[in-house]
Amino acid sequence: MIIGVPKEIKNNENRVALTPAGVTEFRKQGHEVYIQAEAGKGSGFSDEEYAGAGATILPTIEEVYAIAEMIIKVKEPIESEYALIKEGQLLFTYFHFASSEPLTHAMMERKAVCLAYETVEKTDRSLPLLVPMSEVAGRMAVQEGAKYLEKPMGGFGILLGGVAGVKPANVLVLGGGIVGTQSAKMAAGLGANVTIVDISLPRLRYLEDIMPANVDTVMSNEYNIRELIKGANLIIGGVLIPGAKAPSLITRDMLKLMKPGTVMVDVAIDQGGCFETSRATTHEHPIYEVDGVVHYCVANMPGAVPYTSTLALTNATLPYALQLANQGWKTACTRNEELRKGLNVVNGKVVFKGVSEAWNLPYTDVKELF
Ligand SMILES: NC(=O)c1ccc[n+]([C@@H]2O[C@H](COP(=O)([O-])OP(=O)(O)OC[C@H]3O[C@@H](n4cnc5c(N)ncnc54)[C@H](O)[C@@H]3O)[C@@H](O)[C@H]2O)c1
User: What is the 195 CA–ligand 1 centroid distance (Å)?
Assistant: First the structure.
C-alpha cells in the first residue's frame, strides 16, 4: 500500500503520525511511504532520518494526499485539506466527529474512509489510542503542578518532596483512572504524600495494592473531598464519566477552605473540567488565579512534549496501521473488531452511532459496506 504522512497544520500541533522507526516497519512489509518535508521537525525527527529509514520526502502536502492510498495523521483534517482528500482514500487519525458537524459533512462529501483513533476499542471497552495521551497528561500534571507551586510562579512555595527535617507536600488526585494513576506514581516518586480518590471501590483496591506506601486511597464523596482539600498543596483532576461532562467535584465555595497558593491542575478540562472555577487555557497562558488558588487548565497538555507524545502515540497506532496496510481496510476491519469500531464515516455514509445521533444523520451498519 502507498502510505502518506502530511505535516500537521493545526495551530501549535507538533506531533507527527509516523516516526522513522515506523517507516522501517512499513518498508519491511513491502509498503511505500511518502512523508511531507519537515513533517517530523516539531517532534525532533529530520527529513534525513525518514529518508534513511526508506521514506520518500515530498515537498508539498498536495503531493502527499495525491499519491497516498492511506493517510496517517494526528489531528483531524482542517478546512484547507478537505479538497485534497480523494474518494475511497483511507484516513487514520483523531477525528472527534461528534464535536464538529462541518468536518462530518466534509468527510461524507469527499467519500473518504475515516477510521478514528478515538473510537478504536478493545473488548474490555478500553480505548487503546486515547490511553497514551492520558498517560502523558497524567505524568505532566505533576511536573506542571510542581512548577506552579514555586513562589515566583504564584504558588505556595513548597517543594513536593520536602527535605530532611521538612515534611513533603500533600498531593490530592481526583479520579484513579489512567491520568490519576500516572499522576500518583509521579508525585509519589518525587516523595510527596499522595491521596487518590475514586468512586470505584474495585479501582481503589487495585491502586491500594500497586501503589507505594506514600499513596493513600479514599472513597470519593463531597465530605471526604472537603476535608482533603484543606491540607492539599496540589490537586489534580482526572475524573471521567464516559460521554458526559465531568462532575464539578470542587465548587467555588470550597476554594476558601484551601491554603492560598494551592495549585489545581484540571486535566479533565477537555470534558468541561472537574472544578467549578475551571476554564480552558493554552500553553501560552496556562494559569490564572481564583481566590488565591492557582488554576492550570490546558486542554491539550501532551502538545507541550511532542517528542514523548509522538512516540507514545505511534507506539499504539503503528500495529493497527500495519494491519490496515497489509490487509486493506475491509479485510482488516472484518477480522479485527477493535479496528472496525474505529470506522466512523465510509464512502459518504455515517457508520458510527454516536456521530449519526450527534448530527441527526442516517446511520448505516458498516457490515453492509463490506
Ligand atoms: N488536558 C489534557 O491534555 C488531557 C489529556 C489526556 C486526557 N485528558 C482527560 O483526562 C480525563 C481522565 O482521563 P482518563 O484516561 O484517566 O480516564 P479514565 O476513565 O481512565 O479514569 C477516570 C476515573 O474517574 C473516576 N471517577 C468518575 N467519577 C468520579 C468521581 N465523582 N470522583 C472520583 N473519581 C471519579 C472513574 O471511576 C475512573 O477511575 C478525561 O476527561 C480525558 O479526556 C485530558
Answer: 16
